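Case study.
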Amino acid sequence: MVELDNLDVKILTHLQGNSRKSFNEIAKNCLTSVPTVNSRVNRLLELGVIRKFTIDIDNSKIGITEAILLVNASPNAINRVAEELMALEEVKELYVTPDSDTAIVSRIAGDMQRLLGIQDRIDLAGVINISVIPVKTQFKKDTTIPLASSSITLTCGYCDRKMTGNAVRKKFDDKDYFFCCDTCKGEFEKKYVKLLEKA
Ligand SMILES: [Zn+2]
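After joint prediction, the assembly is written out as follows.
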């Protein structure tokens, strides 16, 4: 497991939002220098934390439908069915749930007719039930890093305390900060507003 600190998390969050964001802009938002951002990104790449820089396409703009595929199958068939499904280009994510109620849950995307006919393209031996449920509305698709993770050690922007649990995120003047609690956030805000008034 790779250990991350405040700056790593801030840089990753910026790049997740827009992988083409310039290191100059990221450095400004994170109160650091361009060479520092550059070396941190290289380290995250070398460690395999950043797998690739990619793009987010709005499928609805190009006529691609998204759906959820649910498959119940007997325990001895589940791996074979999962493998067959994974070979299909319409299968974007696939999860197998535990033994007692063995099932495959998968996010699929593609031409609607092809999605509805997905069961005709796999061997149904051992399959108890298979259904395709089209997605009507996508409410949340969030890939940002949950801060309460044992590999992340953040330092409070106000009291400097190290925190491994929940952190409060806040932007001031477009710069990113983490705080250990709402009190620290509030105190920082007061101090910050005073500084701004003096300027
Ligand atoms: Zn604090």
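Observations recorded in class. Residues 158 and 186 are 9 Å apart (CA to CA). The chain has three domains: 1-56, 59-134, 146-199. We will return to this complex in the next lecture.
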